[in-house]
Amino acid sequence: MSEQKKYDVVIVGAGISGGLAAYKLAQAGKRVLVLDGGPGVPPNRGDYMERFYLAMAKTPESPYPTNSELPNDPRPVVLEIGSWQARPPTGYLVQNGPLPFSSTYERVGGGTTWHWMGTSLRLLPNDFRIQSAYGHGVDWPYGYDELQDWYCRAEWEIGIAADVEHQQYHGLKFWNPDDPARQQPYEYPMPEILQAYQDKVIARRLGDITLEGQSVSVSPTPQARNSIPFDERRVCAGNTNCIPICPIQAKYDASIHIGKAQNAGAEFWFQTVVYSLDVDAQSGRISGVNYKKYETPNGPATETGTVSAAIYIMAAHAIETPKILLNSATNELPDGVANSSGQVGRNLMDHPTQLSWALMPEPVWPYRGPLSTSGIESLRDGDFRSEHAPFRMEIGNEGWNWAMNDPWGSVNALVAGGEFGAGLRRTLNGLFIRQFRFGSLVEQMPLSTNRIVPSKEYTDNLGIPRPEITYDLDPYTRAGYAAARKVAAQLFAQMGATDFTSPNMSSASLFFYEDEPYILNGAGHVMGTYRMGTDPKRFVCDANQQAFDHSNLFLLGSGVFPSVGTANPTLTIAATTLKAVDNIIKSVLK
Amino acid sequence: MSSNSELDNFVGLSALLTGFAASTLNPPLSPQPVAVEYLAFMRKPEADVDPATLERLLATYQAIALLPPAEQPAQVQAQVLTDPQIGPLARNIIRMWYLSIWYDGYQSGGVSGFSPGTVVSSNAYTKGLAWDVMQAHPMGYSEMHYGYWADPPEAPDDSTGPGAVEEGSTA
After folding, report:
1. What are phi and psi for residue A429, nearest 5 degrees?
2. ipTM value greater than 0.90
3. Do residues A11 and A32 lie in contact, with contact meaning Cβ atoms separated by under 8 Å?
4. Contact B91 A500 (CB under 8 A)
5. pTM for this structure?
6. If you ran DSSP here, which 8-state letter would residue A66 be given?
7. Edge-to-edge strands, sheet with A286-294
8. Nearest CB to A365: which of B126, B142, B152?
9. Interior angle at CA A111, CA A301 and CA A545, nearest 5
10. 3-state secondary structure of A395
11. What does residue B83 show for φ and ψ, rounded to 5 degrees?
12. A53 in reach of chain B (CB within 8 A)
């Protein structure tokens, strides 16, 4: 053992869960060590910006070290999805199909919050009881009311801009967490972000419309970006670049809490890749975390070691955490750590995202402002959930950037078609300023066959097994996807917009529902795989996110979500993390 | 041909190809003139530009520039874009001005938004004409302030542009 120092807590992963946990635990006087496989937070974001500017494809990963630059800590990238069937795999993930898992994540200090959108919706009360209410999915071990206070605290910790009066739909209630009587009003820390001009055009043109039994309306989105100076960070300047990187850190990312945790005394070891946990055979408690350190991003491991603590927290996100747990299999625990239920790695979920794009008859002036400022939340809940999956419709402010790779797509198509000069300019102008799209995030049902396991065949540069994934969409989720497409078409018609949505029939992400073709898009929401619940036979951890099998092991992140609703997961990750860490401080390490 | 007049020819040709005024493409007193970068990039080996073809392209423009302005676009069409050598080069120059990218394999056509190539520089990225055409800003490079997105852009376009969308125009 190379480390002699005694820690109260070792945390694996320096993303939003690990960062928040480290901060709260260090603040409470605990000796905290955080291990992360990637490089630390850079002194400024200039290098990341330069890599972004020079990238041919402005993917979510484009600002960050490539897998060739950082083979010791590789991660999946959007550009590998198109060839997911290749063997040997051309990307990081080993994908078995039948559909490609299409969401990615970062493995650098700060994690995937570097390129999250910042959308910070709460789950709906019925999302916590979807099985009881609609006969689908899995109920959470607690309800909305039990998470409400933690949502408030997470919103203040991260810094969310929203107005409560615009967020009270589908039974969402807000109250001040410091008032047990629930009489005091609650306020978000910042006023809501101004809606884009296009959001207002869409709302005006939609007028009063009812679909699927729900009155459809456009709502301002709660966002983790500054509408006023907050937490010593500046206000949003509308760079329209939240994904892949905010140039000015007006959008929250977890480097904030890494810094706060360091200031509170937490220790961070970067370039330290954890690959397994040790279990004490006598007590069944976790006894150590095994890691490999490297000095150069593509060099060999320079140190292999084990570090111990009283409490272990896994916060490596919903693919790397189960990979490590399953990679910890021994003769005593042949199925891996925390896996007596056999559920570790199973029920991998995403928010499959149906893209529909159109041209408005009038200018809507896209490519301006944050990437999204409004959404249609009306179809996140309703009686239709007995029949098909619900969805939220994100309204994109980036024209056809995601949908059709614009401006690169249209400029090339028109130039190839012979246009030039003033005519080209006029055509492009008429096209770009009227583009808009909906991205419908569909609730995916848990399937135990959708799983991640450590590959027996393929390893990374340090010899650690790579994640192997089996993934499909169940009929209820597919029906929701189809409903989202149908609703988008209806809304386009209502607005007098011209629908340009057409599935690419040669796409590697093509799937069918009732003979209609659809293209699968990932939302970047990696969820499930170590879910919490009340029954140790069906779940990996309890409502405190404590592993059923190991009393000193806690699991953070969206991997604990039993069902995923339609809220972008990061705010719920933060709320559940704060709740779990509060319990650790008050009841476990007291 | 002096290097100054070569730059002038390149900018003049680019104005006809892109629909933007020469003074917009190469503003006087620009601290980092992207036109200079583009011309320099085309002379790098990785750009794979035959010097004689570039020479002929600029010479063809020089002749066209002597014609009345109203006749020039049609002659660009007839003498440049339909030419099997200088046409593909001219089209890659249009792409470079709009997208700040020099695409590989441009000689054979078939270039798309997913084709390989090189972003000429980060300075060039922030000066792509596509962003001006949409009356926005380069994604990741806003020089505007909080809340600008709540209203339409103030100026519909610059003086040489087409202005707001025309009634009935389509993609």
Report:
1. -60, -50
2. yes
3. yes
4. no
5. 0.96
6. P
7. A272-279, A286-294, A301-307
8. B152
9. 100
10. strand
11. -75, 135
12. yes
Q: How many other β-carbons are positioned within 10 Å of the β-carbon of residue A294?
A: 21
- Which contacts qualify for A23-26: CB closer than 8 Å, 24 or more apart? A23/A257, A23/A260, A23/A261, A23/A264, A23/A266, A24/A578, A24/A581, A24/A582, A24/A585, A25/A266, A25/A581, A25/A584, A25/A585, A25/A589, A26/A261, A26/A264, A26/A265, A26/A266
Please, which residues have CB within 8 angstroms of residue A116's CB and are 6 or more apart in sequence?
A224, A242, A243, A251, A253, A524, A568, A570
Q: How far apart are CA A535 and CA A139, in angstroms?
A: 12
Contact A543, A534 (CB under 8 A): yes
**What b/e string do you get for A40-70 counting C-beta neighbours within 10 Å, with b at 16 or more?**
bbeeebeebbebbbbbbebbbbbbbbebeeb
Phi, psi dihedral angles at A387 (to 5 degrees): -105, -45
Question: Which residue in this structure is represented by tokens 């974001």?
Answer: A45
- Residue in the block written with tokens 């990218």: B101
CB contact B21 to A (< 8 Å) = no
Catalytic residue ranges of A:
525
The set of residues, in sequence order, having a beta carbon less than 8 Å from that of A401 and lying 6+ positions away, is A367, A407, B139
Per-residue confidence in pLDDT tens, chain A, 590 aa: 444 568 999 999 999 999 999 999 999 999 999 999 999 999 999 999 999 999 999 999 999 999 999 999 999 999 999 999 999 999 999 999 999 999 999 999 999 999 999 999 999 999 999 999 999 999 999 999 999 999 999 999 999 999 999 999 999 999 999 998 888 999 999 999 999 999 999 999 999 999 988 999 999 999 999 999 999 999 999 999 999 999 999 999 999 999 999 999 999 999 999 999 999 999 999 999 999 999 999 999 999 999 999 999 999 999 999 999 999 999 999 999 999 999 999 999 999 999 999 999 999 999 999 999 999 999 999 999 999 999 999 999 999 999 999 999 999 999 999 999 999 999 999 999 999 999 999 999 999 999 999 999 999 999 999 999 999 999 999 999 999 999 999 999 999 999 999 999 999 999 999 999 999 999 999 999 999 999 999 999 999 999 999 999 999 999 999 999 999 999 999 999 999 999 999 999 98
- Selecting from B116, B135, B157 the residue whose C-beta is nearest the C-beta of A56 gives B116
A483 neighbors A216 (Cβ within 8 angstroms): no
Question: Mutate which of B16, B133, B151, B166 to disrupt the A interface (most A C-beta within 10 Å)?
Answer: B133
- Taken as a whole, chain B contains a residue count of 171
Cβ separation of B140 and A247 shorter than 8 Å?
A: yes
Find which of A242, A426, A501, A506 to mutate to test the B interface (most B CBs within 10 Å of its CB): A426
Q: Between the CA of residue B157 and those of A359, A426, A519, B20, what are the distances in Å?
A: 20, 11, 36, 11
The token duo for B137 is 């800003």
Q: Tokens 């060590």 correspond to what residue?
A: A33
> What are φ and ψ of residue A467, in 5° steps?
-70, 135
Length of chain A in terms of residues written? 590
CA dihedral angle for residue A366, residue A371, residue A373, residue A376, rounded to 10 degrees:
90
Residue in A590, A527, A579 with CA at minimum distance from that of residue A554 = A579
